[in-house]
Write a structure and sequence with these properties.
By secondary structure, this protein is of the alpha+beta class. It has one domain. The chain has 4 helices and 10 strands, in the order ααβββααβββββββ. Strands 3-2-1-10-9-8-7-6-5-4 form a 10-stranded antiparallel beta sheet, with helices on one face. A hairpin with a 4-residue loop joins strand 9 and strand 10. The longest helix has 28 residues. The relative contact order is 0.17.
């Protein structure tokens, strides 16, 4: 009888642990949407520096720095600073060939940057639509605390947006995207690390995009945040 009671108790405890470890998906989505919305509103009152570095075949090709802020109508404004660095192209036929290649990779890089901006910040309504369609999956990163929600076909067929969240602290940790540029086999992926400003505003501190087929890597660093006086 004692053994039976003990076994029953263990089963109950195991069930309770599983229930605790597996959060309510709707609640977790709510935390993500709330954090995104609040941070988006708060960012309207900040200015910051965005540094974009581009590597090709493992070699640093360019560094661009912009001063960023939101205008009164809510549009993001980027102004180039004097700290950008573009390599010089030699003259002659060799220089012309290099210039053509540079223009082609520059165009592709621009499309990669546009793709990043299509996913950042994630749209709360699109997240909700994917959830309502029953497509969202949840993964336990740290029982009872950290979880990752995955949103397939978030923006286009075959992509995957994943958001990691600290449910206990009610804040975002990281974001990752697997998507494509021109066609489904032209795959790119990028990862985002979130940090927090003193007032709790969360922002994408570092974004790293990899386009393996093109041997291209782009890093976007956000820093130097200043809160504007209201």
């Amino acid at each position: 009888m004692t053994k039976k009671i003990c076994l029953t108790g263990l089963v109950i405890l195991a069930g309770a642990w599983i229930t605790t470890a597996q959060p309510d998906m709707k609640e977790t989505l709510g935390v993500i949407k709330s954090s995104l919305a609040q941070s988006k509103a708060n960012m309207l009152h900040y200015s910051w520096v965005e540094t974009t570095q581009t590597w090709l075949n493992g070699e640093l090709k360019s560094t661009k720095e912009n001063q960023c802020y939101y205008s009164v109508d809510g549009k993001l404004v980027k102004i180039a600073t004097g700290n950008s660095d573009q390599p010089k192209t030699p003259g002659g036929i060799r220089g012309k060939i290099m210039e053509n290649k540079k223009e082609a990779i520059s165009d592709y890089m621009d499309r990669c940057l546009e793709k990043i901006h299509e996913y950042l910040p994630p749209d709360g309504d699109k997240l909700q639509n994917t959830y309502d369609a029953g497509k969202v999956a949840i993964q336990i990163l740290e029982p009872g605390k950290q979880f990752k929600l995955s949103f397939p076909d978030y923006l286009q067929q075959g992509d995957l947006l994943s958001i990691s969240v600290d449910l206990e602290a009610k804040k975002l940790i990281a974001l990752s995207v697997s998507t494509w540029i021109d066609k489904p086999d032209d795959k790119v992926g990028f990862d985002v690390v979130y940090k927090e400003l003193p007032d709790g505003t969360q922002y994408p501190a570092l974004t790293v995009l990899e386009a393996t087929a093109k041997s291209l890597k782009i890093e976007i660093d956000q820093s130097g945040f200043k809160k504007e006086s209201l």
